[in-house]
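Support case: user asked for a sample of complex input and structure output to validate their parser. Sending the pair below.
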Amino acid sequence: MLGWSRLVPGSGQSGWIKAGVFALCLVPFGRLVYGAFANSLGANPIETITRSTGWWTLFLLTVTLAVTPLRKVSGAHWLLKLRRMLGLFAFFYACAHFITFIWFDHWFDVAAILKDVVKRPFVTIGFAAFLLLVPLALTSTDAMVRRLGRNWARLHRLVYAIAVLGVAHYWWLVKRDLTEPVIFATVVAGLLGLRLYWRSKGRPQER
Amino acid sequence: MLIKKPSDILSSEITPRDLYLRRREFLQQATALGLAGTLFPASGALAQPAVPVTEPGKLAKLPGKPSPLSATDKKTPYKDVVTYNNYYEFGTDKAEPAQYAHKLRTRPWSVTIDGEVRNKKPIDIEDLLKLAPMEERVYRMRCVEGWSMVIPWVGYPMAELIKRVEPTAKAKFIGFTTATQPDTMVGLRLPVLEWPYVEGLRMDEAMHPLTILGFGLYGEVLPNQNGAPVRLVAPWKYGFKSIKSIVRITFMESMPKTSWNVAAAHEYGFYSNVNPAVDHPRWSQATERRIGEDGFFQPKRKTLLFNGYADQVAGLYTGMDLKKLF
């Protein structure tokens, strides 16, 4: 057991930690908004925004998936308190990513958007991943957790599929340099692999 | 920041004229003594500053006569042209070439001429610069990734060089090779593409009046990240066909290998003519974003067949199935 994990934050402290993580998660978005106004996003600002929002979606999704393993390994169960916020931020960046796609890429041309979604496999899976995130975000409230009961955990296992689709989406669109998609794929595979391993060991299933 | 006015600079600080005029000789001597590397980290009269060049006026002048073949589109700002580049030898991020390419040694530089050609002598860059009168050619440049620019190149028709080196009757294609400088090109460490970068044209494409050897842009020598000291520009083809920093031009009987085709044959053909009707397998080529213009307040624009040069070049491809020979 790691030493720090025994330092369970009190309710006041955990509020501060939450506020800190919340602020940190907003930094990439803030930088994009600032850059758009300061004209410091490079020669192709739309590309910068598209890439950045996509990257942070995948990053936050991966961090969300890391919460449970990290908590099991370290015993720092309070980490669970951050999971919903991290997941919702992943959804927030996914929305920003989706909006850049329909606005800047297609200028709200519905026919062109549908054509792209149907014809381009990497767009199809990115779009599918986004759609699958929507019910998870909608059922993230305490009331919904209570109402859905055991089905809530079942539903939220969708996040595994979403992560896989997200990595595939990134992998597929890269022109040649696969370094980053490979890193994401490795980490996500590791996090999903751990769950399978624990499951095979017959540990009680955790949400 | 302290900005010195001309009057603030003591005349004693200015290099004496005779020394200045003998600077190349001095450098040669320094090189012979093995000093150049320590005295001048990037030695040579045309060495480029370590701070990325983002505005005109920093590099040597290279004027060109205006050409009737120039496009009338609004030119892309200099800053965008020199900071958004695909030059994988300096990294796969488009901001990286501007950061790292200043290290490229562009002198001494010579271009090997070989294959099916009578005059096989290598041509020194100084002679290449004087081979024909410089023209300014404002061309649209369409990248296969879906963005475009309008760049005022300075150079002369590729045909001028071809005529002088006298290809044999067997020469049907030309292969081009980019320099490899492992100590200056950080990107060579990654096996992203096979190095050196190679490209090619069919002889009639290379002889076409629109095809130029480029030595400059915006009235100055090429910034290194744009392919100094000499590059190809074939404006009706996707940008990657216009190979940078050329060290070898080979006249061939059969079709040469081209780097992107070797890397992914189903995605990048030999011809790679700009064509909105032939999509990249993974994305559409129907539209493009003009850098510096299309973005937050303007939608992307429609891509034109042969990048808008159909009137001039369509004749090169009569009878060819452009969907198959993409």
